[in-house]
Design a protein that fits this description.
The complex is a heterodimer of chains A (about 300) and B (about 300).
Chain A (H helix, E strand, L loop, with lengths): L1 H19 L13 H10 L6 H13 L14 H36 L4 H15 L2 H15 L11 H31 L2 H8 L4 H38 L5 H10 L3 H29 L8
Chain B lengths: L19 H5 L8 H11 L1 H23 L31 H37 L1 H15 L3 H12 L3 H11 L2 H15 L2 H8 L4 H37 L11 H11 L5 H28 L6
Helix pairs in contact in B: 2-12, 3-4, 3-12, 4-5, 4-7, 4-8, 4-10, 4-11, 6-7, 8-10, 10-11, 10-12, 11-12
The chains are: A mainly alpha (about 300), B mainly alpha (about 300).
Chain lengths: ~300, ~300
């Protein structure tokens, strides 16, 4: 219910913000005469009263129809998303798959060896990782590995080798965040009473860490997964720009600057729906990891 | 008064007298909460290093553009893409502008956007969260459901759209941050207020007939301040990052005004040939974010009662 409200609000705000922008989609494109611009506006129904446009737009969205792109002739927004999304998802999933195990492992290791060299090393890695923006890291990875060492390709998205640098660029920030949260949450859990109980009833160290500490420490990580998916998405925007990857982010930035209303609208709603679904899945996962939290009260 | 305790007769007890100075004397100097926090923070070398770097960058950004003989927009097309030299300490960019001055003018913009872009949304969040938590009931329900809905909307998408509508520049950036960034801190403050509201000292104050305003500003606000200050400090690097990100994709700060993200954006176009032009703003962004993160972490440790020894 809340998810649907969110999506509706998102679509509405986007719709009106877009119409508030100065200019029209056909000004910036090629050199079109005023009459031609007018005709294009009429063709796409952009001259009709704004309320009518709004209801048409919402009606179409409800049916999953996002309309034609105003810039790419004869291509629907749906088809563009269908083509670009797998690329972005591939990049995002790769980075998550790289960052998640390493981040969790570093966090656990760091909390287990609190105050030792391992801990300091992990803390340094995580603070530095959080402090270097992914686009800067991306540029430097390009410089070092593609330009100086010449062992990896500079840009594009074709072979496996091409996918290494962008994945690493996004994964480092994620990894750092994960390490930080996992460390804090492990430290919090180790002082809990049930860990003491487990210790006093003679459970082995490994068993305590595995089935009492880690399992409980994972809950804050789960909470982070929603925002984290969002940050991966935003990260892919700029990484896609640097590495010339034909994903959704590239289309999004271009559509906004080019006033491609239908495209921006479609992508915003798509991102929104994606995030809302991610949050929903996180809520369900809560119940599985932690029986104390159930969706139904 | 004194009864027959444990069978000891009353006359066995002897009054030893009272020494007023001794009972009133303080065994050690009293330390207020904030003094204590400051003392612990002062001991934390990492956090202090962060603070010193932040202060140094702020000081440099104020002084250097005033002292330098170049201005941030002054072009010299005879001397473009120069390497760092004694004349131009950081070299010049593709329009022959002095990068040393531009870096520090950029620092002004980035720091201002970072600091105000963190403080203003936090204040809005405190007010809304405070109202919601303190009054509770229907008000709380409505505000919290609204936040539940708004918080799901990806922030960056909205910042980008708002920037396009109200134009680009430092002030629009801060406005966009203020519109989109208050929900998290509102939630936090509400949770804190709900907890503190139940404490005895608030109850006592209410029994004594204190008005709402007095309770809010004398009891609730000071008790949430610590956590709020930490989240503000950690919000600064986030805002600096967002500014850099937006300027980098060409939406945040528009030329000729420099900001670090803007400089990094210009730097990437030539960094294959002149890597220092990207390296310098990149280091500045990372160093500042690092310092704020370290200082914020230190502040949190200093404020956290669990770590108190």
């Amino acid at each position: 219910m809340i998810s649907l409200l969110t999506l509706w609000l998102l679509a509405t705000i986007t719709f009106f913000l877009l119409r508030l922008l100065p200019g029209n989609p056909f000004q910036t494109d090629q050199i079109l005469t005023f009459e031609m611009q007018e005709r294009m506006m009429n063709y796409y129904g952009l001259n009709r009263p704004i309320v009518e446009q709004y209801f048409t737009c919402m009606g179409n969205l409800l049916q999953g129809n996002m309309g034609y792109s105003l810039k790419y002739t004869n291509r629907t927004v749906n088809s563009i998303i269908a083509k670009a999304f797998p690329v972005s998802a591939d990049l995002g999933l790769r980075s998550l798959a790289l960052a998640l195990p390493i981040g969790l492992f570093l966090g656990i290791a760091s909390a287990r060896k609190r105050g030792k060299a391992v801990d300091y090393l992990c803390v340094i890695i995580s603070v530095i990782g959080v402090s270097i923006p992914s686009f800067i890291l991306g540029s430097f990875l390009q410089y070092i590995f593609a330009l100086k060492l010449r062992i990896l390709p500079m840009a594009q998205w074709t072979t496996e080798m091409h996918k290494v640098l962008p994945t690493v660029a996004i994964a480092l920030g994620l990894l750092a965040t994960l390490t930080r949260i996992m460390r804090a949450s492990m430290l919090e859990v180790t002082t809990q009473d049930y860990v003491k109980t487990a210790k006093s009833k003679g459970l082995s160290e490994g068993k305590i860490v595995w089935s009492h500490e880690i399992r409980n420490a994972l809950i804050p990580i789960l909470t982070m997964m929603g925002p984290m998916v969002a940050s991966v998405l935003m990260g892919t925007f700029v990484i896609e720009k640097i590495f010339a990857i034909p994903g959704l982010g590239l289309h999004f930035v271009n559509s906004i600057t080019g006033l491609d209303y239908t495209m921006t609208m479609g992508l915003t709603v798509f991102f929104g729906a994606f995030l809302v679904t991610a949050n929903f899945l996180v809520d369900i996962a809560y119940g599985i990891v932690d029986p104390r939290i159930r969706l139904a009260k | 008064m004194i009864k027959d305790f444990a069978g000891i007769p009353k006359d066995e007890f002897e009054f030893v007298g009272e020494i007023e100075e001794k009972s009133e004397a303080l065994t050690r100097p009293s330390i207020s909460f904030w003094k204590d926090v400051w003392r612990r923070l002062f001991k934390n070398k990492v956090a202090m290093t962060g603070l010193i770097i932040i202060l140094a960058i702020a000081l440099f950004s104020i002084i250097i553009p005033e002292l330098s003989s170049y201005s941030y927009s002054q072009q010299n097309l005879r001397n473009i893409n120069a390497a760092p030299s004694s004349e131009h300490w950081f070299g010049t960019d593709s329009l022959g502008r002095d990068l040393w001055v531009r870096t520090w003018v950029g620092a002004r913009v980035s720091l201002a956007v970072g600091i105000f872009g963190s403080i203003i949304p936090s204040i809005i969040g405190i007010v809304i969260g405070g109202i919601s938590g303190y009054f509770g009931g229907k008000v709380d329900m409505i505000i919290m459901r609204l936040i539940d809905i708004i918080i799901c909307i990806p922030q960056m998408i909205y910042i980008i759209l708002i920037m396009l509508v109200i134009g680009s520049g430092p002030v629009p950036l801060i406005i966009a941050f203020a519109i989109t960034g208050w929900m998290g801190s509102a939630r936090n403050v509400r949770g804190l207020i709900l907890k503190i509201k139940q404490e005895e000292f608030v109850l006592a104050s209410r029994i004594l007939g204190a008005p709402h305003g007095y309770i809010i500003f004398k009891h609730l606000v000071p008790n949430t301040l610590g956590i709020v200050v930490v989240s503000m400090t950690l919000g600064v690097p986030a805002a600096i990052f967002q500014e850099a990100y937006l300027s980098f994709i060409g939406l945040g700060i528009k030329p000729p005004i420099p900001s670090w993200g803007q400089l990094a954006n210009l730097g990437t176009s030539v960094f294959r040939i002149f890597p220092t032009q990207l390296l310098i703003p990149a280091i500045m962004i990372s160093l500042t974010m690092l310092s704020f993160n370290l200082f914020g972490d230190g502040l949190r440790d200093a404020l956290d009662p669990k770590l108190r020894s």
